[in-house]
Prior knowledge:
alpha/beta, TIM Barrel, 4-stranded parallel beta sheet, about 15% strand, disordered C terminus
Amino acid sequence: MTVIDSHLHVWDLDRADYPWLGPHLAPIDVSLGLDDVRADLRFTGVDGVVLVQAADNAEDTATMFAVADAAAEVVGVVAWAPLDDPEVTAFVTGPVSPTGSSRGGAALPATGRRLCHADRRSAGRTSGARQ
């Protein structure tokens, strides 16, 4: 049986802005990559991971695709995409990363999302959201 961790965050403080991080989260207010969890994944029998956005910006998306391009255990990416902007959304709707890599012919599944709770455009909307 193949085991997939379907929700793993990685972040690189040198490449992207993560407004939710700061001194109040000191233990994780550092860059965290796949190498930081790889031993734990192996120990627990996890064969693959899906990377999930950690910030609403293109730099975080690029960071995830760079990790995915370099790591065979990444089987998918849930990237940031302002879903109301067709130009931006288009770059994550195909089966290949925005970097153009298809990882040796094996397409990388990707999808997009935006964090509604952190998006000022969502203020006042209640449809489908918990209060």
